[in-house]
Amino acid sequence: MIRHIFKKIIIFILTLEARLVLRKYHPTIVAITGSVGKTSTKDAIYAILSKQFYARKSEKSFNSDIGIPLTILGCSNGWYDVRIWLSNIWEGLRLIITKNHYPKWLILEVGADRPGDIQKVAEWLSPDIVVVTRFADVPVHVEFFASPEALVREKTYLVEALKPGGLLVLNHDDKQSAALKEKTQARVITYGFGEGARIRASHQEIFYDTGNGAGSGKIAFNVPEGTIFKVSYVGSTVPVRLNSAFGIQHIYAALAGFAVGVLHGVNMVAITEALGEYVPPPGRMRMVDGQKESIILDDSYNASPVATEAALETLSAIRTNEHARKIAVLGDMLELGKYSGKEHARIGEQAAKTADILVVVGVRAKMIAESALSMGMSSYNVHTFETSREAGEFLKTFIAKGDIILVKGSQSMRMEHVVLALMAHPEEAPLLLVRQEAIWKEK
Known about the structure:
The protein is built from 16 helices and 15 strands.
């Protein structure tokens, strides 16, 4: 109870300071929302804008009622340390009282865990640009909303908060995102693969290193290196290369970056050069060197049905070497409420068509295994575990040279433990994996 009251007080003070800071410095605000792909989109937009302007982005997934003020103030999460929170409050006061070199652009991720989350933020945050990524028929956190439509409505509050003359950037391929153009009088630009998208991608494919592998110099077979595709806008087309990035979500992130960049004076060649340095956020379909010359597709940050489906599609698309296996390691997808059983079963059907080996973690994920077995997957190739640590220990002795291992599950399943167990260089975990802070390791 005391901790809850303390949190409320801190949020009130930091939000007040953040509002005063915005009023004083008037940065251009890019706010990103949607059900999937927010963090990757935020990072891609930052990669582009930071080459041209003094910009700041939300760290990690600071997208809540406390994370957004922290980003505006340039402060870190104090967790349970009162001293850090007092220091954050002082930093806010310093920004308000004294003149500082403040960013010209703020790139903010805005999420919703519960009803009212975005509505509260939209009461005081007026973005210049809103980017909407992608929705889902069954989005994560839907358990706490009356329906998927109610969650979409929550995100719409951010669109309605756009400043007069603002810019709305929408995913053309997502019907719910594209429909938001009816909710505003702002300028609208769309991105996607479909006919009619203003910023349009095509010819996407995975590219491979046929020589020395993914940075270790020891892998002597074809290794997926990243994704290449083309982007077209008003008659011009440029090639884009995303290193160590896999999956359609990273292409969409790059397209959103193109939309924001070209409409603010950044030429397409400069954008492609900036994206060449784009590094996928930890735990979002990021390639990690595995033991025994295996390859890990680390998608362990979180999981929803649409994101898990996309991850399995990427696993299916990757070309493997002879005798190498595709291993899907899937944890529970949480916060799905009444949709949980159906969605886990649906993912099991897809996994059976995609993976050679299926490893599931958690009570709900057993439905993935059962569904895969019902689709004809051999029981010899399906393995179930209660915890991610147990799964990691099993896989350490099970994986072989050339195996491609997809790791995905909801945040609470801590699937990064699987990745850590299999990493060729575990000493790099603080840089490459999610939830490596001391507070998370204690949980």
